[in-house]
Design a protein that fits this description.
The complex is a heterodimer of chains A (160) and B (417). Helix content of chain A is 31%, strand content 13%. Chain A has 5 helices and 5 strands, in the order H-E-H-E-E-H-E-H-E-H. Classes of the chains: A alpha/beta (160), B alpha+beta (417). Bound molecules: iron/sulfur cluster (SF4). Iron/sulfur cluster binds next to helix 2 and helix 4 of chain A.
Chain lengths: 160, 417
Amino acid sequence: MTYTIDALTKSLNVFHLAGSACNNCDIEILDALTPKYDLERFGITLVGSIRHADVLLLSGIFNRKATVRLKELLVQAPKPYLVIAIGGCPATGLMFRDSYNFEAPPSIPIDAFIPGCPPKPEAIISGVVTVIGALREGAIVPGCLQEPEANPQPAPEAVT
Amino acid sequence: MSKRTIVPIGPYHALQEEPEFFKLHVEGETVVHLDIELGYNHRGIEKLSESKDFEETVFLVERICGICSTSHPIACVQAVEDAGDICVPERALFIRSTVGELERIHSHLLWLGLAGHFLGFNTLWMWAWRFREDVLNILELVTGNRNHYGMMKPGGVRRDINDTDIPVIIKLLEGLKDPIAMFRDAVIEDPLVHARTRGIGVLTREKAIAYGALGPTARASGYDIDVRRDHPHAAYGMVDWDVITCGNGDVFDKAVVRILELFESIRIIEQCLNQLKTVTGPVDSDPRFVATGEGIGHYEAPRGEVFHYVRSDGSNRPVRHKVRAPSYMNVPTNRETVLGETIADATIILAAVDPCYCCTERMAVAVDSPGGRRLWGAQDLIRMSCEKTYELMDESGLRGPEPPPCAAAGQTRDSGR
Ligand code: SF4
């Protein structure tokens, strides 16, 4: 385990970016911080700016207006960072795929998808734990550190 | 006059879980003007709905908003039932009201927690969300999911409530009464909450009517409006409950209305569950087709009246589906309530209407009525703007030999900041 990974996987600071979500994934993320699940015991906290964050949680599809902001945020994110997509929306676009306002996801290095609509807080926690475990074992490398060629994202067809 | 500054809040701000962009124009500490910019959340649901059949539409409208995720489906299925003259078994009506009221409890507790968080009263946030988990457990028991219940369908509901579950649910509800009474006392008797919310962000009754405010926002201003009573639907005509109103229209009253509504919701659920013990029968009339026609459906969502309009041409999908969510009416009242207040109060006032932006997103297209041609899209506006620049350049002789980079201007970014 390199120094970077060691530092990255401790006390995750999470920035939550709701694209064009239905709100539910966002609420389940907040739920994971409240007393029943209480992620703060593990040092996981929500932060207000991407510049302080280790992890970017995406939820919802990204429409034409939100995609511009997503790209901007990724430029501002301090490397190394992890990107975790919460819910079915960022993974596949669900039923919003055919919308006139749906923008095919930009090729961003997503490290983990947590499926569900919405995923339960337990699933979110388990997903984060799995990613941390895999990073520590060296099974995966944060997507943002990979060379762009080494991480070919199959670009979904643009929907017009 | 002091200098005017713009304080941006959003679009991705730590305070908000949804993307929206407030521009507070302030002079000194006082908010003098408010701009709300939306569009980050627009998914074109009304249009998408025309490509789904009537059963799929219900799942689609469920995903308009994760908090009102049974209000939209209830309004939608009622509109379809109205359009196609579909009857609904009585047992299904009680189940609809049960799920709807459980949703109201979880939504109001969620709001209460967030309001506490905005006031710096994080204890209230954590407590409210802790007891909200108990409501979600009941919902999971009844519907099989914590959110997005997938319960409604035209003609009834998808899942029955087992008789063996009813005592368990009643016991769990009983356990919620004490915490809710605690919240009532924590808000009504806490001097700090009084100091921060009393007389702040007042919406008068006249203004509430003028803006067409709905739900708790209107009821806190003394405007007695509730579609559960005014147009009884689901089981609301068959149970006994009261509409809660207050008179001052400030943030405090909005909180009080919501907390007192929690008790009414519990009352409604208990009556519905008791009725379910005696009202037996199917929960779904299993309609085979929806006749030609148009229909409307109302439902009193936690934030106010949700309205759906569906037009059917006898095929298996709607030819037009119109949704009006309560935040669409409530958010503009911020102009009345925020202006003249200080920035420190602006957050709680903006949050007091319990805005839901994923419900509110709309797109407007200006259409040339005889030809049906679209006028003034984003590209048109950019082109007009470019043209004006070039005209000015020509007039002032500033225009260089190169062709203007107009095509690139259209690509860079959408409107926005
Ligand atoms: S995955 Fe489901 S719950 Fe999450 S934002 Fe998308 S529609 Fe909503």
